Amino acid sequence: MHISAFDYDLPKEAIAQEPLPERDGARLLQVERGGEGLQDRRVRDLPDLLREGDLLVLNRSRVLPARLHATRAGGREAEALLLQPAAPTAARADGGQAWHALLRPGKRLRPGDVLRVAEGFTLRVEEGREEADGRRLVTLHAATGSVAEAIERHGHVPLPPYIRRPDTGADRERYQTVYAREAGSVAAPTAGLHLSPRLFAALHARGVRWTEVVLHVGPGTFQPVRAERVEDHRLPAEPLSVPEEAARAVNAARSEGRRVIAVGTTSVRVLESAAGPEGALAAGAGQTDLVITPGHRFRLVDGLLTNFHLPRSSLLLLVSAFAGRERVLRAYAHAVRAGYRFYSYGDAMLLL
Asked: How far is CA 103 from the centre of its chain?
């Protein structure tokens, strides 16, 4: 299929720039996966839309304050977006820690250049080939404390570029799910941003259950597909893990005929990547570069809670694979007409 089949028009004013005051106050478009029905709801309606025994699968990855504002020689500005620690992850003999990062201005930064992030916190550009996605090897040095502490103290929330403002202190809380625990993502698993403690209490009272997996989200997930044929699109590998308790919970739900509902496309990719030949979820850690396109046979996912995604993105391909391209684009057109808010801080869809 040609990527142009996954395009749509969106007014700039439809792109949410701020989160709503309440997480579960977002609008929710309910889409019949096997029919034509569309219903305008609110995320707080989820307990009424789900069944007793439904199992939600959450991605508990935590977003790093991965954007480092820095200065280079002469006081000129620079920026680094940390992607993931380089192997081995242990600190070097000099106390430095190696990372993969995207640098700006990338072409002007040479091996050996040292960027000052803050007093006592620096980044050195290392020798090595720039990868296809632009990542380079750098070493972070903290004069006091650990590198991880310096990143937490001086890093900025890596808001996506379509949010046209600097990050604020409020983003540290709101661009993070309430259940995020394992640091490693550079973009939020945004469907989960809508879930609040109040909503979890209501879901529990309804008899809805949940379990947690991990996929550390890299920047490639949200970038436009540049291949003309969607089948040719590739994603950089991202770390994932499936705890034993998650594998047990998902496999029990499947064997008992209960629905497995993924919260976010990242949870879908974990489930579909770790599904065995017979459809059982395997526990363990690894990496995935799975790109889900129309024609994919879903083995573990019965429902999906997801935000609205960019045109020509791998995430829109995944949602279209799950519910059908024409149905999804028709739902998107309805959302545009009805004034839904789009992307990370926007509204959501429930596909069942």
From this structure: 21
